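Cross-check.
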Amino acid sequence: MRAVIVTNRVKRYVNGFKSMIEPLIELGYEVVWAADFTQFKEDLSTIPCKIHQTNFRSNPFDPNNITAYSQLLELLRQEPVDLIHCNTPIGGLIGRLCAKHAKVKKILYTAHGFHFYTGAPIINQTLFKWGEKYLARNTDILLTINQEDFKAATNFKFRKDGKLCLIHGAGINTGYISNSNRDKIREEIGIPASAIMVFSAGELNQNKNNRVIIEGLAKINNPEVYYVLCGEGKLRKDLEELSEKLGVSNQVKFLGFRTDVLDILSAADIFAMPSFREGLPRSLMEAMDAGLPCIVSNIRGNSDLIEEGKGGFLLSPKDVLGYAKVIEKLAIDTGLRRNFGALNKEKVKDFDFKNVKSEIKTIYKSLM
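Predicted model, tokenized:
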């Protein structure tokens, strides 16, 4: 039996890929992974399957995607393929079109976050939704990772006997975060041991909406509350200037790109994710596993993980005063932080990599 995994650009062999590839190998499939490996930062020999360089680009108008279509179609026509599992919007589009033309027996697609989410622009609600509905007709199993996407796809029409599934995301390794180095890490990044540390991780862009936390911090007017950001992005300079303008630059720490995010999480007191759009955010799950209370925007993905008043707070992405109030509330209430953190640490166990891998393996088995 032969299976092909389709993803976009790959930098590391992480859990999201392992949860698809390893179950197929265990079930006896010969696996080929079609993706763009030009920026892979590890040893390619660590990948336990064949790889096929495919020039996928996330921009749908990039001409490389025309090349990617040809590259993937050639792979699928070399010899019969029993199963193809597509990921990302571009991989889902090109992969399913190629699979149809190559007469692949079983076609799966994991939606890591539909573009026609609640509050999305009109073009997303029309063109992208129509596109997903059309492609669903060439899909045997559609996997979703949050409740909103699952509900949105309930009226899709699939291939004969096709079905819709909800899984627990890509999976994280739970139970590995320790706060034993808390003081050392705080000293390294310049946070006093007695201070309250609010933490965010991710690209510094418009969607991540970090400015609302900086603005909230200014309203609190408490020099003992710090905001630490891990990540790079085009808005870094703007956020630094905003911090300076609001008089909180001494309390906002920009750490840039870091490979030790889990260690830094262990030194935090509160996690913040005020994004406008998410699928099922891994960084939020990691914060839950670290036992942190979480203040997040009330959007899909976030609301799958955090329940209002149980593990954290859900707010509108633009509610500056709301974020200020809940940061202040958690900052002064050690018991509440501890209770929320314990709830999160228990809830996130369902999203452990081993559980996700088992879910996907069961789905693969159903197609054999």
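The chain has two domains: 2-171+352-366, 182-351. The chain has 14 helices and 14 strands. Passed to J.P. for a second look.
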